Amino acid sequence: MKLITAIIKPHQVEVVRAALEEFGISGLTVSEARGYGRQKGHSEVYRGAEYTVDFVPKARIEVLVEDGEDYRIVDAIVAAARTGRIGDGKVWVTSVDEVVRVRTGERGEAAV
Amino acid sequence: METALDTGTTAWMLISASLVLLMTPALSLFYGGMVRTKSVLNMMMMSFGALGVVGVIYVLWGYSMSYGSTDILGVFASPFDHFALHGLLADAGGEWVINSLGYPEAVNVAFQATFAIITVALISGAIADRARFGTWLVFSALWVTLAYFPLAHMVWGGGLLSADGPIAKIATPIDFAGGTVVHINAGMAGLVLALIVGTRVGFGKVAMRPHNLPLVMLGAGLLWFGWFGFNAGSALAADGNAGLAWINTLVATSAGILGWLVTERIRSGHATSLGAASGIVAGLVAVTPAAGSISPLGAILLGLVAGGLCAVAVEWKFRLGYDDSLDVVGVHLVAGLWGTIAIGFLATGSGLFYGHGGAQLLAQVLAAAIALAFTAVITTVIGLALKYTMGWRISEEDERLGIDQIAHAESAYDISGTSGLIVGASDPSMIPVAPTPAGHPTLATTTAISTAANSTAADTPADPTREESRA
Predict the structure, then answer these.
(1) Which ranges of B396-440 would DSSP assign to H, the alpha helix?
(2) Which pLDDT tens digit goes with each residue over B96-153?
(3) Count of domains in chain A?
């Protein structure tokens, strides 16, 4: 089993969710995040004092998938999240040792 | 001095003016809560911008254009009669000018100015999230001058739609506190601007959910409070008619809540808080023109219908495809028209339901139609002129990112503690890690801004300890 984590622009979350739905992905987790990368931040001014806000709002999507499915899901996320501008984010895949569905106690791929 | 000063009325009118002024910040809360987190500041700033622009203009030429002595074609008065209130406040002998109703002209200017401000601010809800702030400010100045002041003159300043105008031969149109001047005017302007400015990116596809409903409810509550000055103050006296207007402003609004909640409970299953807040405004708008001429029972009927009607009308924009973002059309135009026309039925002294025939109804329909057409034409001209000169829209990318950052360089909410560094604070020695017994850490920070403004904090890696020290 694999865990796909994607850090993307917040306004692309719905697009990604819709794309994954077509792949039969039945569940994912989204959290609000802030990040610092090549996009850098922007500056804000409060009563003449200028601040650089280095951490920009991002959304983190986490999806558990069965082994072998991860590459096409990653491709789907990348295609849906891309705007072509700096700050589109990153997607990575990690191996998962065990997954348990809390309600039923199912383990492994059955719980994904 | 022709009329003696009535101190009771003067006190009440001063209070009313202050109450009506509060409605504009209240509206900014009401509207601000309804937009998304990334555009709440811009939404509120459109109201505050109107406070700035219209407040100044009203004193310069607004009052003169609305209520000055030289009538021009029954459409507006000369802006030069009382430019900057010249000759209006005190007479040649230095005595305060008291109007025929027993309160100073100065107090009248104050009261009327607050109406002009809120009317302009109302329009902003139709073009939320996407309009350039500079264009909005210029629009505010042009629109209040070319649409609001003339309509105020026509209805309240002795013009075409007043007791001195041609419609008065049928019956004098009744607009107690601004059904035509304020709500039909702002509502129609909102529709025209929504069409000219165009839809937001993702309109009808992406959910554009209100980001803070408690803010909306606070705003609606404060609007109601201020509206007692708007309606009861429009009696222009501290008398029984003011009391009637107050009661009608209570019950029509209460009924507006119920009308909206019942309608949405039947149509979509739930009585919502946004529905209650919207029902308040629908009831208030409908009773505005009618408050002084209908019975409390009539006001209940008026408010109930207004709540139900507007709850349905706010859905039209999705079917017809105009992005009236915060329902200026669905609430202000629809309830404004309903309130204005319903007077023809409900006015106790001249309405159809009280056996007085259809003359009042005809006068109301004519006044509403003229106001509607007038503001549609004027707003179209101003809106298109600005579209092809200054431009209305921020870029699509900026709109996705959020207009607050682009237009104002601010964030409304900072709850995650990642609020950045002061520009110029890149030299670590400038940032106090902990307050030293002898030093003043805030002074050190201030120095950092003024001496090293050219360097940027982006050169340095983000360091959590420094984040904490700044916070």
Answers:
(1) 396-401, 403
(2) 999 999 999 999 999 999 999 999 999 999 999 999 999 999 999 999 999 999 999 9
(3) 1
Residue scoring higher pLDDT (A47 or B179): B179
ipTM reported for the complex surpasses 0.85: no
Contact between chains at A54 and B411 (C-beta distance less than 8 A): no
Instruction: Say if residues B290 and B259 touch (Cβ distance below 8 Å).
Output: no
Task: Report d(CA B135, CA B117) in Å as an integer.
Answer: 17
Residue whose C-alpha is closest to residue B278's, from B303, B247, B298, B301: B303
Q: What is the CATH number for A14?
A: 3.30.70.120
What domains does chain B contain, in order, with CATH numbers?
7-401 (1.10.3430.10), 415-470 (no CATH)
pTM for this one?
Answer: 0.87
Angstroms from B424 CA to nearest CA on chain A: 9
B310, B282 contact by CB (below 8 A): yes
Among partner residues A11, A36, A43, which is closest to B423 by beta-carbon distance? A43
Domain of residue A98, residue span: 2-111
Classify residue B192 as exposed, middle or buried by CB count within 10 Å of its CB (0-12, 13-18, 19+): buried
